[in-house]
Amino acid sequence: MKLWLLSALVALLCVAAVPSSAEAAAAGEDEFMQTAIDEAVNGVGKGEGGPFGAVIVKDGKILVRAHNQVLLTHDPTAHAEVQAIRKASALLGRFDLSDCVLYASCEPCPMCLGAIHWAKLRKVVYGATRYDAANAGFDDSYIYEVIQGKAKVLQVAMEHRPGSGDDRPFALWKQKTDKTQY
Ligand SMILES: [Zn+2]
C-alpha cells in the first residue's frame, strides 16, 4: 500500500474514533446522572435518608456529590439538592452557583426548587419525576397546592400580623452602605 493512502486511512480512522463534542457532552451528562443515582442508592444503603441523590457540575466536572441525609442528621431540610448546594457553596466560598449545573436523581421538591433559585443555578437535569417520588411515599403535591393557593386544608396556620415594627430590618438593610446584595 502506498504511504499516502495509508496515512489517509489512519487519519480517517482517527476522526471516526474521536467522539464529537456533542457526543462527549452527552456522555458526560450520562455520567453525572448516573453518579446522582448512585448517590441516592448509597444513601438508602447507609440508611441516611430518602432515595435521592444529586451532583453539582462545574466546568464539565463533578464538583460535589450528595444524597439525602434527613435521617442521619435529623434535619428535615437535608435533601440531596440542598446538601449539594451547601457543599458546593462552602467549597467555592460563594453563594452564587450560576456557573454550575445540578444533576438530581429525581425532580426537585418545592423547597429544593427554591434553594436552586437562591443559589442562582441556571440549569437542573433530573431523572425520575415527582410522580415517581410520590409513588415511593414522597408526595410533595400538597406543597405545590399550598403555594398555588389551591390547598383545601392548610397544614400550617399562617397568620399575618403587620404593624409591629416589621419594617425596621428592611429600613436598616436599605441604609446599610457596605452590604452584599444577593
Ligand atoms: Zn427537596
Give an overview in words.
There is one protein chain. This protein has 182 residues and is an alpha+beta fold. 48% of the residues lie in helices and 14% in strands. The chain is built from 8 helices and 4 strands. It has helices at 3-17, 21-46, 70-73, 80-92, 110-118, 130-135, 141-147, 168-175; strands at residues 53-58, 61-67, 100-106, 123-128. It has a 4-stranded mixed beta sheet, with helices on both faces. Helix 5 (110-118) links the parallel strand 3 and strand 4. The radius of gyration is 23 Å and the shape is extended. The termini are far apart. The mean pLDDT is 91. The structure holds zinc ion.
Task: Please tag this protein with its features.
182 residues, alpha+beta, 4-stranded mixed beta sheet, 8 helices, 4 strands, binds zinc ion, APOBEC/CMP_deaminase_Zn-bd, CMP_dCMP_dom
What helical percentage do the residues reach?
A: 40-55%
Give a short account of the largest sheet: 4 strands, mixed
Evaluate the radius of gyration. 23 Å
Major β-sheet strand ordering:
2-1-3-4
Task: Write down the secondary-structure element order.
Answer: HHEEHHEHEHHH
Average pLDDT value? 91
By DSSP, the count of extended strands is 4
Span of the ends, CA to CA: 67 Å
Model regions low in confidence, pLDDT < 50 over at least 5 residues: none
What's the tally of helices?
8
Bound ligand species: zinc ion
Which structural class should the secondary elements be placed in? alpha+beta
How much of the residues is beta strand, in percent? 5-15%
**Outline:** extended
Pfam family, one: dCMP_cyt_deam_1
Keywords: Metal-binding, Signal, Zinc
Protein name: Nucleoside deaminase
InterPro entries: APOBEC/CMP_deaminase_Zn-bd (IPR016192), CMP_dCMP_dom (IPR002125), Cytidine_deaminase-like (IPR016193)
